[in-house]
Amino acid sequence: MALQRDIVIIGAGFAGVWSALAAKRLISLSNKQRDLQVVVIAPEPFLAIRPRLYEADVATMNHPLRDLFDSAGIQFIQATVHNIDTTGNTIQFQSTTGTKASIKYKRLILAAGSQVVRPQTVAGIQKHAFDIDTISAASKLEYHLDRLPTFPPSQSRDTIVICGAGFTGLELATELPKRLGEKSGARIILVEGADEVGPELGPGPRPIIRQALEALGVEVRLGSPVTEIDASGVHLASGEYIETMTAVWTAGMRATPLTQQITGAKDTLGRLQVDQYLRVPTYQQVYATGDAAYALVDTEGHHALMSCQHALVLGRVSGHNAAADLLDESMIVYSQPAYNTCLDLGAFGAVVTSGWAREVKVSGEVGKKVKTYINQKLIYPPNDAKEAINAADPKIASSDELLTEMLITVQ
Asked: What domains are defined for the chain?
């Protein structure tokens, strides 16, 4: 017999954690703690601090959740979901011990995130490329980097190729000189198929990014995508072959495959199109949030990005609305018109931009202080359950207000 729960949340990333806390907040405010149950199902009992996986000491980039969930009255099931039956309102999962079970829901929140895309058109990518998409993957790369000095000196050993000059690729490429040390003599090459670095970041911060790459000695190859990766190097469409023992793939993300089990419109990244309340239109009992949701953020036609910044708010709104739906309370329309970015540039500093036009606000040392504050404080949920539930209010300060506060704090 399947378990029965009121609100089931798949995923314990930023959106999943804040969905659970926001749902619990409204349930508590309505004095319905004994009537409505919230359960989170995820493979691991911690929040992976994914925005920091380009840094060193990757094993520390997680935030334990069991005690927080227990104190907040949120049930946690450590398992992997394999099947979603939207007709029977049932999901099937498998625990870490191999036990299979199912659970029925009244409201489902899909918050299972996204994963790096490894295109089949790039030969050898599965076998020979590293990535930093998960703690496990980033730890594997870190172990490999630590072992590089034990290999005989060679061009292949001393060359690292980052495949993809988007947000993740840029942060990793600019962080590596510090991680490897000045004496390593490592050659870092950033490869991008587009004609500019950070193509999705726009022209605003690009001069600063170029300046940082040059100052840190990072080489750039533009307009020539990777076609093949083998044990000894990387092949580019231009015909260039770069010898390397370390190819890191950072090009492109796609929503969790679980979105494909839910009928409904999806974008090119596999995200489920949702309404203003983050419900999937074809199934009113199902909500999608975080990287699984293709959600409008404003009236200008902008959609949420696969980013921590959007997941933090998407999670709060989806959790609140799933609970409100069951409690006959008013739902909240998801809106997040303010948009800011903070790109780490290693020892060069960081660059902070404002708005969808990516207007540069600060850079260098001040930008680095903002980035450090975000990475080491802002994105972590409180350990205290009462504080965390209070912080799950979906009507939180906007990104612009938070940026203003941070700039005042760090200057």
From this structure: 3-115+254-338 (3.50.50.60), 119-250 (3.50.50.60)
